[in-house]
Design brief:
Blueprint lengths: L8 E7 L3 H8 L5 H4 L3 E6 L9 E8 L2 E13 L3 E6 L5 E8 L5 E8 L6 H10 L3 H24 L1
Antiparallel strand pairs: 1-7, 2-3, 3-4, 4-5, 5-6, 6-7
Length: about 160
Amino acid sequence: MPLTDVAPLEASTEIDAPPAQVWALVSDLRHMPRWSPQCAKTFLRGGEMKVGAKMVNVNRRGLLVWPTQGQVVDLVPEKRVAFRIKENWTVWSFDLEPTAAGGTRLTQRRDAPKGISDLSVKLTDRVLGGVDDFTAELQRGMAQTLAKIKADAER
């Protein structure tokens, strides 16, 4: 049975840059290796960001390396980009909101609307220290990712 009682993970930051500038960064998922502590490489098949676009990610943690396959499931210019990971069924997203000061509130989120696959749960338990520890690591990683995006956008 898949793990079905999965709370969303979410982190947000305020960026002193307009949504269009932040969007130029986060809408190109090939930048993820620069920001994410887990993603080492992202290949976008066909090179065009659009709903249905597929990508391959190479993830790493120390000496451990593993691939995942993603597909863009939502893309609203200057507002939202979301992609689903085939192997574990999770949906990762970036949402942008303009702030009153002319900046952007950027929120990264991981949802599991269909739960997390048995395969992913078993591998997480056996190789990544268990679901609870890995979830906490992902939450910390989201904060790191947003801090790096903020730094890039504010340069």
